[in-house]
Structure prediction request, 85 residues.
Amino acid sequence: MTTKPSEDDLLAVFSRADLGGDEKLDLMEFSLVLDLLGLSWNKAEVQHRFEQADFDRDGFISFPEFSGLLTTQGWTTKGAAAAHG
Prediction:
């Protein structure tokens, strides 16, 4: 990934990957988001990150869960300063 996405960028990518239109991502949709963001992980890494992000353990990732994961990992412009500060 050449530039870190903003919150608006994340919402656009999340919405694009939300194939079911239910405002949450299953594992396959989450994998699609990662591809769209240019994050290349193997299946085990994708599964691990999915489980990390699924805070309420409902088997899906909501946008707040998704955004929270990327922000805490320093993968967004919002979280970049906090991750290094």
Remarks:
- The longest strand covers residues 24-25.
- The chain has one domain: 7-78.
- The two ends are 21 Å apart (CA to CA).
- The first helix runs from residue 7 to 17.
